Amino acid sequence: MNYRSLGNSGLKVSELSLGSWTTFGGSVGSADAVAIVRRAFDLGINLFDTADVYVKGAAERALGDAIRDLPRGEIVVATKCMGRVGEGPLGRGLSRKHIFDAMDASLKRLGVDYVDLYQFHAPDADTPIEESLRAFEDLVRMGKTRYIGFSNFDEQPPLADKVVAIQTRERWTRMISSQPRYSLLDRHVEDGHAAYCREHGIGMIVYSPLAQGVLTNKYADGARPEGSRAAGTFAHFLESQKALTPENVAAAERLGTWCAARGLEPAAVALAWVLRNPVVSSAILGATSGAQLEQNLKALEVKLGDAEWREVETLASNAAAKPAEARPAAAAKRPAAPAASKKPAAPKRVRTRARRAASRPAAAGRAAGARRRAKR
Predict the structure, then answer these.
(1) Residue 31: pLDDT band by 50, 70, 90 thresholds?
(2) Closest of 178, 193, 217, 179 to residue 338, by C-alpha
(3) Fewer beta carbons below 10 Å: N end or C end of the chain?
(4) What ranges in the chain are assigned the alpha helix state H?
């Protein structure tokens, strides 16, 4: 396993991390979750990401059970708040009250005294960002979290700018991580957010690097295999994030054919491509078995030349690279490969064991978009 600095911090996280969205407490039972987490740790994964809203808190409880016997000083526990976890007007959001209550509830479910990384799950249009940031600063000072970050703020560049400005002005703890979607089929962060993160020393912990499994090519020819997300209770996420489209399936089929001719796994190639971006600190994997986890870790063994990587990108270039409504006209001018210059944040690798877009959705759509994303 390789480890990278999380942004410009001294925290080292594994290039591949383990998430729990739709798996722990959902499609994966508690006993299986324990086995998967411990196998991940044995393989060198040290970053475990979850959120209070995942399966109504069940994911945090399952992760807590799984890490109970692991050395606390050797793992990075990350969770998030914002989504609805309770009834009534106080059951969601980024108010000071909700943040404090959510943190205490997460610590209890996880069975830990502190989390290593606490994140805004999505923007909250109903709360002044200054209030939310002050609450996060106080949690750091109280010792309940070591680092702070945000997720899905890539969709609101002016708000992300404001976060950095406020924290700089007040000399508060800075956001050290951003968690956006990023894959061969969804490259929207290259249109501004990656540069923003590089400029401010923020590491990207990217989710859906396999486009929710589409890039494994399991959905070729319209198949919906038993046990896959498309065949289960979480299929709506594939639709809401426009992952399982005919264009994306066709792109995955092309990539699958190309990989088969070279004896490569398409999932491993897709993950390795994401890790080529120097602003990426870690890519989050979802796993329903130890075997699936080990299969995805083959990404660390993929070695391709620049010409071959250009072929890989071309295979996916005709796909719906991102939701149409979020795609600026400037996207056509996007470089073929992620930029690797200017680095306070170029990740440092340690071999061990085991801006902004020109326009974005109007303010009127922010609240609805944030609530939808926070269910992820």
Answers:
(1) confident
(2) 193
(3) N
(4) 30-42, 58-67, 96-110, 129-142, 157-170, 193-200, 235-240, 246-260, 266-275, 290-296, 306-316, 366-374
Q: Does domain 2-368 have CATH number 3.40.190.10?
A: no
User: What integer pLDDT is reported at residue 338 of this predicted model?
Assistant: 43
Catalytic residue from among 3, 54, 196, 207: 54
The residue type found at 93 is G
Query: What is the distance between the alpha carbons of residues 125 and 366, in angstroms, rounded to a whole number?
Result: 7
202's CB contacts (< 8 A; 6+ apart) are 7, 149, 175, 176, 177, 178, 196, 345
Per-residue burial over 158-190, b if 16 or more Cβ lie within 10 Å, else e, is ebbeebbebbeeeebbbbbbbbbbbbbbbbbbb
**Nearest CA to 6 among 340, 346, 277?**
346
* Measured torsion, CA atoms of residues 45, 302, 200, 329, in degrees rounded to the nearest 10: -130
DSSP string, 34-82: HHHHHHHHHTT--EEE--TTGGGGHHHHHHHHHHTTS-GGG-EEEEEE-
Handedness of CA 103, 104, 108, 114 (dihedral sign): positive
The span from the CA of 206 to the CA of 152, in Å, is 10
Residues 6+ apart with CB under 8 A from 138: none
Tokens 């995942």 locate to 54
Give the N- to C-terminal CA distance of the chain in Å, as an integer. Answer: 27
> Mean pLDDT over all residues of the chain?
85
pLDDT band at 217 (very low <50, low <70, confident <90, very high): confident
Whole-Å CA distances, 182 to 185, 207, 262, 317: 8, 6, 25, 14
- Residue pair 160/132 in contact by the 8 Å Cβ criterion: no
Query: What does the pLDDT look like over 266-275, one tens digit per residue?
Result: 999 999 999 9
219 is catalytic: no
Read off the tokens for 29: 């039972």
Domain boundaries, the chain: 2-368
**122 or 226, greater pLDDT:** 122
Question: For residues 342 and 198, is the Cβ–Cβ distance under 8 A?
Answer: yes
Nearest Cα neighbor of 230 from 252, 253, 211 is: 211
pTM over the 0.90 mark: no
The residue type at 114: Y
